[in-house]
Amino acid sequence: MGATGILGGTFNPVHNGHVRHAIEVAEALGLERVLLMPCAMPPHKESAGLLPFDLRVELLRAAVEGISFLDVETLEGELEGPSYTWRTMNEWARRHPGEPLPYFMMGAEAFAALDTWNHGLRLPHVAHLVMVPRGGDDGSVFHESIRSFWPGSLPPSVDVPLGRETVELACGGKCTFLPVPRLDISSTFIRARWRSGRSLAGLMSTGELDVLHAHAEEVSACWATARVR
Fold this sequence. Notes:
This protein is an alpha/beta fold.
């Protein structure tokens, strides 16, 4: 089986930016599939305003419908307690013996804070890490984090046309800096537009919009004071 990518997040809600992100990374790294994995109980964020897990899964399934290499992974909904990535990825590996290490995608802010995560610096033992920067990031966060977290790692190999850099870590595993095109959409923006009654067309698929409107009362009550990204 080919390599798998995993894109985690609260997905409150999922939107076209998430979907395009997954597609861009899959194509850039030659992944066989990407799994969008919603967080059940975020350990680092407030849960106020977070849509129920099952509803976020329903939205995700609508978002990836018709895209053959994207799917939804509900593993964190099966585990008790806070959704720590270290525990989740160990459980994923246990359920997929013999498969190559997955590629776990994260943004620059999360990558730079790995030392504050539960066993965050051990994640390269169970997954290759892929840092996808926001526009304008020159890789300084990536380089500084590598030097701080895993001193003695090999210098990066650079794919100049793509701007991609891959570092073989001193602890084993590897991290990749991967600039890819991004859609400037946020879940915060979508929730604000929903609360003000504005159109979400073009920001989400029609399937997702159908799900939101089918649960409109619950969604509006939940997002009335939402703070979670």
